[in-house]
Amino acid sequence: MNQSAPTSMPTRHGRRVGIDVGSVRIGVAASDPDALLATPVRTVARDPDPTAAASADLEEVAAIVTELAAVEVVVGLPRTLAGAEGPAAEAARTYAGRLSVRIAPVPVRLVDERLTTVDAHRNLRESGVDGRRQRSVVDQAAAVLILQGALDAERNSGRPPGELVRTDGRKPRTKDRRR
């Protein structure tokens, strides 16, 4: 009997983009082409009308994805410590859905990001960044943590991280809704 190693998951090469969706700013991070290390890219100001069909922040993030020739985008899903989803998670889901339509066929995935902003503030404080300067870079730092976590999870499991955002309006299959 011929038993060969599974070949269902090819090595995925290419740059990934990480997004931390906030109510005021959006942090953007990117990986190297080998998807090993996440680094900060930019902080994008949120459009005052986030429901606009073509909001300025959505267009700027889409331009970054195109400029970096990203093969995947990872958006942080801020769940509570108990794993529930509140208004911030709903806002991240909505943003991820709008972004996935805008940048298709580049896939967008939602990944759990509990406490990344708290960790980002702590890391910045420990590295000597003062409080006023933190506001302008904390979203980027949170995006780095979100993306690095997703890269590490994929490397450890051999599977894409989180939950695939579908552009057809249907809910993802159960196996795509990993928590």
UniProtKB/TrEMBL annotation:
<dbReference type="InterPro" id="IPR012337">
    <property type="entry name" value="RNaseH-like_sf"/>
</dbReference>
<keyword id="KW-0963">Cytoplasm</keyword>
<dbReference type="InterPro" id="IPR006641">
    <property type="entry name" value="YqgF/RNaseH-like_dom"/>
</dbReference>
<dbReference type="GO" id="GO:0000967">
    <property type="term" value="P:rRNA 5'-end processing"/>
</dbReference>
<dbReference type="GO" id="GO:0016788">
    <property type="term" value="F:hydrolase activity, acting on ester bonds"/>
</dbReference>
<keyword id="KW-0540">Nuclease</keyword>
<dbReference type="Pfam" id="PF03652">
    <property type="entry name" value="RuvX"/>
</dbReference>
<keyword id="KW-0690">Ribosome biogenesis</keyword>
<dbReference type="InterPro" id="IPR037027">
    <property type="entry name" value="YqgF/RNaseH-like_dom_sf"/>
</dbReference>
<dbReference type="GO" id="GO:0004518">
    <property type="term" value="F:nuclease activity"/>
</dbReference>
<comment type="similarity">
    <text>Belongs to the YqgF HJR family.</text>
</comment>
<keyword id="KW-0378">Hydrolase</keyword>
<feature type="region of interest" description="Disordered">
    <location>
        <begin position="152"/>
        <end position="179"/>
    </location>
</feature>
<feature type="domain" description="YqgF/RNase H-like">
    <location>
        <begin position="14"/>
        <end position="120"/>
    </location>
</feature>
<comment type="function">
    <text>Could be a nuclease involved in processing of the 5'-end of pre-16S rRNA.</text>
</comment>
<protein>
    <recommendedName>
        <fullName>Putative pre-16S rRNA nuclease</fullName>
        <ecNumber>3.1.-.-</ecNumber>
    </recommendedName>
</protein>
<dbReference type="GO" id="GO:0005829">
    <property type="term" value="C:cytosol"/>
</dbReference>
<dbReference type="InterPro" id="IPR005227">
    <property type="entry name" value="YqgF"/>
</dbReference>
